[in-house]
Specification:
Elements: H1 4-29, H2 37-47, H3 49-69, E1 75-84, E2 95-108, H4 112-177, H5 183-218, H6 230-238, H7 245-254, H8 256-277, E3 282-291, E4 302-311, H9 319-385, H10 391-426, H11 433-436
Antiparallel strand pairs: 1-2, 2-3, 3-4
Pfam families: OEP
Protein name: Outer membrane efflux protein
GO molecular function, one term: porin activity
C-alpha cells in the first residue's frame, strides 16, 4: 500500500512524457510545407510594390482616355447672380437676381481625333508595360529563389567538409600521440579545420543575405525551407529548340515589352498628326436658358437662345508647325527604338542558346569531376590511415573534393539561370505550363495574351542574380535557359487587363 503513491507518480510522469512527445509530433505535422518556386512567384506578384504599381499606371492611362473622349461630348454649366442696388428699381426693389443654364456641344473638332487615338495607344502601351513589369518581377524572384537554394547547398558542402576535417584532425592527433606520424600532420589538420570553419561562417552569412533578398522580392520574410524546382532543373538539362524564323516570330508576338513599344510608337505618331488637324476650323453649338425671377410685369421671366460658333485659326505664328516638327522627331526616335528592340529578340535568343549550351556542358563536366574527387578523397583517407599517404596529401584531396562540389553547385545555378534567361527571351514566364497552371493570372477577355513572365527591357538588360564564385552566391548577369511551351497562334494577342499575367501556349 505504501508503494501506491510512487506508482501513481510514475504513471503521471509517464503520461506527461507521452503527451509531450505526441504534441511535438503534432507540431511537426502542422509545420509549414517547403516554399515552392511557384508559390514564391505568386506571393511576389501579390505583395511586392512593383506588382501593385503596375495596374495603377494603367488606371492613370484610362483617365487620360476619358479626358480625350470628353472633347466629343457636350458640357452643361449653370450660373447665377444676385445684385444689391442702393437705389430702388422701378418696382421698388433693391435686390435683383438671374440664373442661366448653358449647354455646349462640339460639332467639328478635328484635333480631338488624333488626341483620342494617342490616348488609346498610350493606354494599351501601359497595359503591356504592366504585364512586362510583373514578368520581370517574376523572373527576379525565380533567380533569387535559385540563389537561395544554391547557398543552402554550398553551406551543406562546407559543413560536410568541416566534419571530414574534424575527423581527420582527431585521427592525426591520435597518430601523433602514438608516434605513428609527425606533429606536422596534426598541425596541418588543425589548419584545415580552421579553414573549413571559416568557410562555413562565411556561407552562413551569404545564406542569410540570400534569404533577405528573396524576402524583399516576395514582399514578406522568408525563412525556408525551400522546395527544389526539379522540373526547372530537368528542363534546363534537356536544352532548348533550334533557332528558326518561326521561333523568333512567336517570341516577337509574345514579348510584352515589344508590344508596349509598338503601342508607344503608334501613340507618338498620332500625336504628330494632331498639329495638322489644327489647320481646319472648329464648329460648335451652344444653347442657353436664362431665368430672371424679378423681371417685372412687363419683362419675361426666362429667355432661350441658341448659337453656332465657328473658329478658324488661320495663322498661329507657326506654333502648330513647331509642334509638328518636335512630335515627328519624337515618333521617329521611338520607331527606331522599337526596331532595335525587335532586332534584339533574335540576338537575345542566340545568346541565350549559346549560354545554355555552355552551362549544360559545364554542369556535366562538374558532375564527372565530383565523382572523381570523392573517390580520390576516400582513397587518400584510407591510405593515410594505413600510413601510406601523408597528411598534406589528405588535405589536398579534401580541398579538391570541396572545390569540385562547389563547382558543381555553381554550375547547376548557372544552368538553371540560363534556362530562365532563354524563357525570358522567348517571352515566356519562369515556369512551364504544368507548374504555372495554378499560379498564373487569368488572361484578359477578348483575345489571347502573350505568355507571361517580367518589364520593357531585353533579356540582356533584365536584372538578375549571377553565378557565385568559389561557393559564394553573388549578384551578376544570369545565363540563358531552355524555351518551354509557346503559343501556336500567329495572330497578335490583345493587350491584357490591368494586373493580369499572360498565359502560355504549346511547345515550339
Amino acid at each position: 500500500m505504501r508503494r501506491a503513491p510512487a506508482v501513481r507518480w510514475f504513471l503521471s510522469l509517464l503520461s506527461c512524457t507521452a503527451l509531450f512527445l505526441l504534441d511535438g509530433e503534432a507540431r511537426e505535422a502542422r509545420a509549414d510545407p517547403p516554399l515552392t518556386l511557384e508559390e514564391a512567384i505568386k506571393q511576389a506578384l501579390t505583395y511586392n510594390e512593383r506588382s501593385l504599381q503596375a495596374p495603377l499606371r494603367v488606371e492613370a492611362a484610362e483617365g487620360q482616355v476619358e479626358r480625350a473622349r470628353a472633347a466629343f461630348l457636350p458640357s452643361l454649366s449653370a450660373s447665377g447672380a444676385a445684385v444689391l442696388n442702393a437705389a430702388e428699381d422701378f418696382e421698388g426693389r433693391h435686390l435683383s437676381a438671374s440664373a442661366a443654364l448653358t449647354v455646349n456641344q462640339p460639332i467639328i473638332n478635328p484635333s480631338a481625333f488624333p488626341s483620342y487615338a494617342q490616348a488609346r495607344h498610350s493606354r494599351e502601351a501601359e497595359k503591356w508595360g504592366a504585364v512586362q513589369d510583373r514578368r520581370v518581377l517574376a523572373f527576379d524572384t525565380a533567380r533569387a529563389f535559385l540563389v537561395v537554394l544554391t547557398s543552402e547547398r554550398l553551406l551543406s558542402v562546407a559543413e560536410r567538409r568541416l566534419e571530414r576535417a574534424k575527423a581527420n584532425q582527431q585521427n592525426a592527433q591520435a597518430r601523433t600521440e602514438a608516434q605513428l606520424a609527425s606533429s606536422n600532420d596534426a598541425t596541418r589538420s588543425l589548419i584545415e579545420t580552421a579553414s573549413s570553419s571559416r568557410e562555413v561562417v562565411r556561407l552562413q552569412g551569404t545564406l542569410t543575405q540570400a534569404y533577405l533578398n528573396l524576402g524583399f522580392l516576395v514582399g514578406k520574410p522568408v525563412t525556408g525551407p525551400l522546395a527544389t524546382p526539379e522540373r526547372t532543373t530537368r528542363a534546363a538539362r534537356a536544352g532548348g529548340p533550334r533557332s528558326s524564323e518561326e521561333i523568333i516570330r512567336r517570341a516577337e508576338q509574345r514579348r510584352p515589352d515589344l508590344r508596349a513599344a509598338e503601342e508607344r510608337t503608334a501613340a507618338l505618331e498620332a500625336s504628330a498628326e494632331e498639329p495638322l488637324y489644327r489647320l481646319a476650323p472648329t464648329l460648335g453649338a451652344s444653347g442657353q436658358l436664362r431665368v430672371v425671377p424679378n423681371a417685372g410685369s412687363t419683362g419675361r421671366a426666362y429667355d432661350l437662345s441658341a448659337q453656332l460658333n465657328l473658329n478658324w485659326t488661320i495663322y498661329d505664328a507657326g506654333a502648330r508647325y513647331a509642334d509638328r516638327k518636335t512630335r515627328v522627331a519624337q515618333a521617329k526616335t521611338q520607331a527606331l527604338a522599337e526596331r532595335q528592340l525587335r532586332r534584339s529578340v533574335a540576338v537575345d535568343l542566340g545568346l541565350a542558346r549559346a549560354s545554355l549550351k555552355a552551362a549544360r556542358e559545364a554542369f556535366q563536366i562538374a558532375e564527372q569531376a565530383v565523382v572523381a574527387a570523392r573517390a580520390n578523397s576516400s582513397e587518400t583517407e584510407i591510405l593515410y590511415q594505413q600510413g601510406l599517404a601523408r597528411a598534406i596529401e589528405l588535405v589536398d584531396a579534401n580541398a579538391s573534393r570541396y572545390e569540385a562540389e562547389v563547382n558543381l553547385e555553381t554550375a547547376r545555378l548557372a544552368m538553371e539561370q540560363a534556362y530562365l534567361e532563354l524563357r525570358y527571351a522567348l517571352g515566356l514566364d519562369p515556369l512551364d505550363d504544368q507548374a504555372a497552371s495554378g499560379n498564373a493570372s487569368n488572361p484578359p477577355a477578348g483575345g489571347e495574351a502573350p505568355a507571361q513572365p517580367a518589364p520593357g527591357t531585353t533579356a540582356s538588360s533584365a536584372p538578375a542574380t549571377g553565378t557565385p564564385a568559389t561557393g559564394t552566391p553573388a549578384t551578376g548577369t544570369p545565363a540563358t535557359g531552355t524555351p518551354p511551351n509557346q503559343p501556336a497562334t500567329s495572330t497578335p494577342p490583345n493587350p491584357p487587363a490591368p494586373g493580369a499575367t499572360p498565359s502560355q501556349g504549346s511547345n515550339p
